From TrEMBL:
Gene3D superfamilies: Ribonuclease Z/Hydroxyacylglutathione hydrolase-like (3.60.15.10). SUPFAM superfamilies: Metallo-hydrolase/oxidoreductase (SSF56281). Pfam families: Lactamase_B. SMART domains: Lactamase_B. This is MBL fold metallo-hydrolase. It comes from the Bacteria. It comes from Kocuria rhizophila. The lineage of its organism: Bacteria, Bacillati, Actinomycetota, Actinomycetes, Micrococcales. Residues 56-228 form the Metallo-beta-lactamase domain.
């Protein structure tokens, strides 16, 4: 069962294209590029990740070990590969396992190419940041704002709004009771810098949100799972905050 509520309380190389996808129509091909599933075992959930498409988009699956409940983050492309990951996570022969919620971190087309197919076949609820809803063609069942909580059987995720890359970009926080927090940041925070913004004002907004809502609140061992590329930790990135602010990206 799903409910939403406010919680109680040395240089970086030139940016790969995935920081800001060109405004092109979404491709219709599936099964283009998908990496082998990477698995992280935590105390109460399992995190799975595959990279899909020519843009190295990460698709994440969280599975509750006690309830079997599953949450998908960014149905970016290749519904067939996503179905395989969900089935592997469910431990049975069902293509779509117990997938209950699909969260889209932001509205850029490279993060939603498989959303309609996955949501339709899995009969899962869809969600995104409230300010990005209008830019996503697939209807949303839920919209999130900063501080909301997505609570399912065995999985609880805090929503952080990180405005700037898009108006409604969000990150999702999973707090492991026996280890560091895990934050799924979409295209707002990467190893080595922030996601692309289109104006100095947007950059300042994103830098402020990332600083205040992530770096000021979470410990250095917090794991960052970005929308593209490899994970990092806040401890690895924290020393570079001044550099990011000065360079403006």
């Amino acid at each position: 069962m799903l409910s939403t509520a406010f919680p109680i309380s040395p240089g970086w190389p030139p940016r790969p294209p995935w920081y800001s996808p060109a405004p092109l129509p979404a491709p219709t091909l599936v099964g283009m590029i998908a990496t082998q599933t990477e698995v992280i075992e935590l105390a109460r959930i399992t995190i799975r990740r595959i990279s899909v498409s020519e843009m190295d988009n990460n698709v994440y699956l969280l599975t509750s070990k006690s309830e079997g409940t599953q949450v998908l983050i960014d149905a970016a492309d290749d519904a067939r590969a996503i179905a395989g990951m969900v089935a592997a996570g469910s431990g049975d022969c069902s293509d779509w396992g117990n997938l209950q919620l699909i969260v889209t971190t932001h509205s850029h087309w490279d993060h939603v190419r498989a959303l309609e197919a996955v949501a339709t076949h899995a009969e899962a609820m869809t969600a995104c940041g409230a300010s990005d809803e209008a830019d996503i063609a697939v209807p949303m069942d839920l919209t999130f704002e900063n501080g909301d909580t997505a609570e399912l059987d065995g999985i609880e995720l805090e929503v952080l709004e990180l405005r700037g890359h898009t108006p409604g970009s969000i990150a999702l926080v999973y707090r492991d009771p026996e280890g560091p927090a895990h934050i799924f940041t979409g295209d707002s925070l990467f190893p080595g810098g922030l996601g692309k913004t289109n104006s100095p004002e947007d950059f300042r907004q994103l830098f402020r949100d990332v600083t205040e809502r992530i770096f000021d609140r979470f410990d250095d061992d917090t794991v960052i799972h970005p929308g593209h590329g490899e994970p990092t930790t806040l401890g690895a990135e924290r020393p570079h905050l001044r550099e990011w602010e000065e360079r403006g990206w």
